[in-house]
Amino acid sequence: MINWQDIEDLGFEAEQLASLALTLEDAVSYGPASAAEYFGAFSILTTIARRHADKLNVMAKAEISKLRE
Q1: Alpha-carbon distance 63 to 38, whole Å?
Q2: How far apart are CA 37 and CA 31, in angstroms?
Q3: Would the pTM of this model clear 0.70, i.e. be above it?
Q4: Residue 28 belongs to domain spanning
């Protein structure tokens, strides 16, 4: 059965990731450093986004498996 709290938590996490991405975009566009200096932050964001996607995939596969039973 779908755990709606987990879904809500993932939605909140997705909003935070989107906000972080927009902040980084603004920093690259208007910040005092060069785009290359922001590369580390984008690397971290990518790692966090991949983990988020993995959580979604695990949840989706579990629900699909339950539906097939």
Answers
A1: 38
A2: 10
A3: yes
A4: 4-68
Residue 66, pLDDT above cutoff 90: no
Task: Measure the CA–CA gap between 38 and 58, rounded to whole angstroms.
Answer: 31
Cα–Cα distance for residue pair 41/55, rounded to 1 Å? 21
Domain count, the chain: 1
Select from 61, 59, 66, 57 the least CA-distant residue to 3: 59
Cα 65 from Cα 69, distance rounded (Å): 7
Whole-angstrom Cα distance, residue 68 to residue 14? 28
Q: What is the pLDDT of residues 13-65, one digit of tens each?
A: 999 999 999 998 898 888 888 878 888 888 999 999 999 999 999 999 988 88
CA dist., res. 28 & res. 37, Å (int):
9
